[in-house]
Amino acid sequence: MAQDLLSLLAKEKIIAIVRGIPRGSGEQTAKALAEGGISFLEITLNTDGALDMIDEVKGKFGERIKVGAGTVLNLKMAKEAIQAGAEYIISPNLDEEVLTYGLEQGVEVWPGTMTPSEIVRAYNLGAKVVKVFPIGSLGVKYIKDLRAPLSHIPMVATGGVNLDNIKEVLGYGAVAVGLGGNLVNNSLIEKGDFEKITHMTASYTKLAKEVEENAAKS
Length: 218
Hints:
It is a single chain. By secondary structure, the protein is α/β, with parallel strands linked by helices. Helix content is 51%, strand content 16%. The chain contains eleven helices and nine strands. The strands form two sheets. It has a seven-stranded parallel beta sheet with strand order 3-2-1-9-8-7-6. The protein is globular, with a radius of gyration of 16 Å.
């Protein structure tokens, strides 16, 4: 299961991050993202009604979207997320209790890391993927620098990835990127402009596909 999830992530290359959207808009948001080609959706637990949203989105779109929980900061949150049906857990930090518990439950945990020491520690503890955050502050070339000695560890670059740099970030060796407000635009959701969300999503997934196709050729 873990390998299947990682293989799919490496192919699809984008995790859409839902944070702080209005309560009750989860289904329409997920539908708009799915129609634009998204296969991984992270619902952060600091979103109002997040646990219900995980359950709802998984129930409606479980065949099309892998639904995970984000901003999982401690063991209690991890237990609640898994109970709600999260298929993977993502954190902004490395919490060893969360990682150990997730693996015991057969649920992938992709912890947030920044330094080489954190990345290697998370990987050695069993994380199949690590999130490198915040890449926008560190600079996208930071991924390239990390990949030189640590190319065996799959990394998701999160924070500051946009249409202008997504191909560069993926080209530097990130297995995938996490896209929050630059894709899941809360003001568009509040206005009900889900068509624009789908359009933007299609632009991102097109660029990610080009990276995948170019890699296959080389």
